[in-house]
Write a structure and sequence with these properties.
Layout: E1 2-5, H1 9-22, E2 33-35, E3 40-43, H2 53-81, H3 86-100, H4 116-129, E4 134-135, H5 136-143, H6 145-180, E5 188-193, E6 197-200, E7 206-207, H7 209-215, H8 218-223, H9 233-239, E8 243-248, H10 254-263, E9 267-270, H11 272-290
Parallel strand pairs: 1-4, 5-8, 8-9
Antiparallel strand pairs: 1-3, 2-3, 5-6, 6-7
Length: 291
């Protein structure tokens, strides 16, 4: 028997359950055992044979990624950053996992470093090829040190992102409150967002910057100076149109998302091409009516 030794009983139990589940087809003839009193998982040498060893290594690799990584991240949050609330931890871990899964490309450059899969697999190969009993906690401390240090950096970046998201929610809540008390100054307007942002009134006539600036409610800038910009958000909030026809070819850009989050069902999103078609049709119909 080759032993994997743990400091914590729960860790030994978790690995035991994980291996028994993953390697169930081999359990009848060569059972993996758990010594609960000494926090040890006992693996028969049969599992170290050439045809079985890759499956054992893969199972331990999955244990590290699916069980221990989460434990380590939560430990870093609680011990290094005082985030002990499970709900807050969940939000921060969601950010990290979304980057790992490729869903937050804007954060990828900040979370590059140790190549997770390669590093862990390399360390597992080394320790299991030696075919000796070992302390799992020492294995993590020494062989996986670079990886665990990388996890700390990931946590730091995710916390910064989490704080920014919290501030963004405050931003939305504050400005929605302003909007609720604001009487619409126009039934609708058209907003085209390309490289620049251009406002158009109900007659598809461009609204000049000077006109937009005059429309801004000064109380908005005085009471919420941190939250608003005078070029887009402030005019929109001040005019508070019943409907915003927003045209863009990039509906996922931050400004578009913010406008949608603020005005919600008041926003109708279409392509820039649709705007030009509608504007042309509007002027064409006007000319025909005059004739």
């Amino acid at each position: 028997m080759i032993e994997i030794i743990f400091q914590k009983k729960q860790d030994a139990w978790n690995l035991y359950q994980h291996l028994v589940t993953r390697l169930a087809s081999w359990q009848e003839t060569n059972s993996i055992l758990l010594n609960e009193d000494r926090n040890r998982v006992l693996i028969p040498e049969e599992f170290y044979k050439k045809e079985k060893l890759p499956f054992l290594k893969k199972s331990v690799y999955e244990f590290i990624l699916k069980v221990k990584r989460d434990d380590w991240l939560r430990g870093i949050l609680a011990e290094s950053y005082c985030y002990s609330d499970s709900e807050e931890q969940d939000h921060i871990l969601d950010i990290i996992y979304s980057v790992i899964e490729g869903n937050r490309k804007e954060l990828v450059p900040f979370m590059e470093g140790v190549e997770e899969q390669g590093v862990i697999q390399s360390c597992i190969n080394e320790i299991f090829n030696e075919k000796v009993s070992f302390s799992f906690d020492s294995f993590v401390m020494f062989r996986l040190r670079g990886y665990t240090e990388q996890l700390s950096k990931w946590v730091e970046i995710a916390i910064d992102e989490y704080k920014m998201e919290q501030e963004y929610q405050v931003f939305l809540h504050t400005l929605r409150g302003f909007l609720e008390d604001r009487k619409p100054q126009m039934s609708h307007l058209y907003l085209v967002i390309e490289e620049n942002m251009v406002f158009y009134n109900q007659q598809f006539t461009e609204m000049k910057r000077s006109e937009l600036f005059r429309s801004i409610d000064r109380k908005l800038l005085v009471n919420h100076p941190v939250y608003v910009d005078s070029g887009t958000i402030a005019p929109l909030l001040s005019i508070a149109p019943e409907t915003i026809y927003l045209y863009t070819d990039d509906p996922h850009q931050p400004l578009v998302r913010t406008i949608i989050n603020l005005f919600e069902e008041r926003v109708k999103v279409s392509s820039v091409t649709a705007f030009h078609d509608q504007r042309s049709n509007f002027f064409k119909e006007n000319r025909e009516n005059i004739q």
